[in-house]
Structures are given as C-alpha cells and as structure tokens.
Amino acid sequence: MKNILLFISIFFAFNANSQDTIYARRMLDSLTSPNFNGRGYVNEGNKTAAYFLDNEFAKMKLSKFGSSFMQPYYKSINTFPGKMDIIFDKIKLKAGVDYLVSLSSPAIKGEFKVVILDSTNLNSQKDIDKILSKNNEDKFILIDKKGIKDTIVTKFLESFKGENKLKAKGYIYINDKLTWGASDGVSVNDFVKITITRDLFSSIKPKKITIEIEATFEDGYRLYNIVGYVKGKTNPDSFYVFTAHYDHLGRMGKDIYFPGANDNASGTSMVLDLAKYYSKPENQPEYSIAFILFTGEECGLWGSEYYSSHPLFALSKIKFLINLDMVGTGSEGITVVNASTYKQQYEKMVELNKKSNYLKAVVERGESCNSDHCPFYQKGVKSIFIYAMGGEDTEYHNIFDTSAKLPFTKYSEIFKLLLDYIKN
Ligand SMILES: [Zn+2]
C-alpha cells in the first residue's frame, strides 16, 4: 500500500513537473516568435505580447485589481520600423550579424565618405586638432580604438558619448560582439552611430558608406504592465509577488528582430507557470501571491518604475518580492541580488536548495539596480532578483537569443525551489 502510494505520488509529481516545463516552453516559443516582433515598439510587438499575457491570466482565472489585468502608461521612444540598409563600398552588410545601429540614430539616406581613425593616425593632441579642423559634415568617422594607447586620445574618444564632437554625419565603432540596447532610444541624436564586428572590419576597410535607415519617433506610445493575483487562504491581505519583464528590444528595421528568449521570455514564462500552478484550487497558497509582468524594462525599468509609483495594492502589503530575469540556463546555479540585505530569506533559500539538491549553487550578491526589483527596493519593499548562471547559452541582446538555443537547463529545479520557498 505504502509503495503504491509512493509510486502514485512520484508519478504525479513527475507528471505535474513535466507539464510545467511543456507549458513554459510553449510560452517561450510564442513570446519569441516573429509575430511578437521581439516585444518592442515596432509593429505593435509590445502590445501583441501584452494581449497574449492578458489572455493567459484570464485563462487561469487569476483575480484582478480593478477591472483589468492591464495597467497602461505612456512613454516615447525612437524606432526603426522600415528600411535598414548599409553598404560598405560595394558590399551589403547583414543587419544584426555584421552591424547594429544605435537607437539614438536619426533617419538617414545617402552616400558618404568614410574616414578611418586608428592607432596609425590618431596618436596625439596634434592628430586630434587635425581631425577637428576638418569639415566632417558629410563623412562617417570609423574609429578603431584597438592599439590606441595615448591617454589624451583615449579621453577624447570617451567624450564622444552622445556628442557629435567631430560634427560628422555618423560614427562607426568596432566590437568583437554585437550587443544592442533600447535605453538610448529615449532621445534622438543629430548623428548616426553604428557598431560593426571586428570580423567584418578585418575583411573590409570601407572608403564609402551607402546608407538608408527609416526612423520614427513614437511619441506617447501606450504600454501595459500585466497584473493579476491568487488570493491567500489564511493571509489574503499579505502578498508574495513574482515579477518579470516581458518586453525586449523589438525590431531593428523590417528584416530582423531580437527574440529575447533568455532576456526575458524565460522569466515571463516562469512567472506564467507559477501563476498557473497557484491558480489551481489544490495549490492555493496561505498568503496571497501577485504576478506582475512589466514592460519597458529594456528602456530603463519603465514598467516597474511606473507600477511602484502607481501600485494597485499598497506596497506595504508586500511581504516579499521575487524578480526573475534571465532564468533560462542554470548549470552553474543562480545568483540572488539583494541577498546580502535579506540574509535570512537568502539563507532559507540556500537551505532548501541543499535539502533537495536542486542547483549547484545559490550565490549571494549585494545590491544592484539592474532589473525590476530595484524601483521596489528603493521604495522600501523587501525584494530580490534571481538570475540563472551557466555558459551553456551566452547570447545576450542580439538576434541569436532564440528559444531554440535556450536550454532551460535547470528550469524545473529553479521552479521547484521557488515553490519550496513560498511553502516554507
Ligand atoms: Zn535586457
């Protein structure tokens, strides 16, 4: 009898668990699909994701604060919705593979001369004065910092951030890896900024650039945080909160998009999965649990900043907030930001992990304002941020952060550790 019961409970535990992973993977696949346009600001990618998540919450029959799961707010951002063509001499470059264009760049069309500045011609104040004295209005300045050692020159180049020091049409920088960002799209510069790979630069030293970029500044773009909860059995007025940002970088031109599988369709899928779990009557928690999916994180924590300033229930009712961002790996365990502040909670997590042998490590980290827990933390809400570690997938803010590449190495283990934590 005992053995049969044991068998049955193991069977169901296994079954429930495999179901979770299937659901989470399905969510991950959907959120990263071309339909969602990288969950950014081109082709309503962000809105498509918001409606999709709203529908998931509705299917789970989560409770609402007010009449909707959706909390709207408005922001402005630059976008590249259309043409994105760059040709070096006669070679057409591949967007996202050979180059990225900074979101602070304006629309542009034309053919321009390229001036290369590197350690052979930029070595002293005299060289700086020389380039400053030239008319660079119709030129792109390609800067190869490699090998430049002069401190005056280095300082001069560092001062370029956001400033058109050479009064040029644009600048081209070189990097080993391409990493795009959305936060510089909040305002538009009077110059184009391009980053190319060193691989490309080693195969071509361009004399001429032919470029066409369409840009639209979206003024007062409507965004939605998605918020729902499950009422607690014994302490309904006290909340655990799980958060994740569902937005990503969107499109850079009509041809490519950034899927943002690890960042942060992974955390979004886990929050959905947790919500699905707790929404089942048999899993009703003792405390209430709120699930908040933010947007606008990539632009500068917009969603969490807005929500924590316009909370749908008093922030003082939050017992503990756990933010999940980039949880798709885990071979090296997880890191807990704010662990040093909330030692007791962190140690509980370490203890539970040890007991069930889920993860290789639960690493302590101090404060870091690097994800959506931060605006809450700054307002006095006890909050931590968990991310997974492991070299099995290192794609970040590029077009290769895809669902197919994301292994979900320790997805179930992280999920179970969170359930254990809430239970204890
Ligand atoms: Zn990100």
Keywords:
424 residues; alpha/beta; Aminopeptidase; Glucose Oxidase, domain 1; 2 domains; 8-stranded mixed beta sheet; 10 helices; 30% helix; disordered N terminus; binds zinc ion
Walk me through this protein's architecture.
Helices cover 30% and strands 27% of the residues. The protein is elongated and about 75 Å long. The model is unreliable at 1-16 (pLDDT under 50). A hairpin with a 5-residue loop joins strand 12 (250-251) and strand 13 (257-258). It has two domains: 16-78 and 219-423, 3-Layer(aba) Sandwich (Aminopeptidase), CATH 3.40.630.10; 83-213, Glucose Oxidase, domain 1. The chain has helices at 2-31, 45-59, 125-133, 151-158, 198-203, 261-279, 302-309, 343-356, 373-378, 411-423; strands at 70-79, 84-88, 91-92, 99-101, 108-117, 139-143, 170-175, 192-197, 208-213, 216-230, 235-245, 250-251, 257-258, 287-294, 318-324, 333-337, 362-365, 383-389. Bound molecules: zinc ion. Zinc ion binds next to loops.
Helix-strand layout with pairing:
Blueprint: H1 2-31, H2 45-59, E1 70-79, E2 84-88, E3 91-92, E4 99-101, E5 108-117, H3 125-133, E6 139-143, H4 151-158, E7 170-175, E8 192-197, H5 198-203, E9 208-213, E10 216-230, E11 235-245, E12 250-251, E13 257-258, H6 261-279, E14 287-294, H7 302-309, E15 318-324, E16 333-337, H8 343-356, E17 362-365, H9 373-378, E18 383-389, H10 411-423
Parallel strand pairs: 5-6, 6-7, 7-8, 11-14, 11-15, 15-18, 16-17
Antiparallel strand pairs: 1-10, 2-3, 2-9, 4-8, 5-9, 10-14, 12-13, 16-18
The protein binds zinc ion.
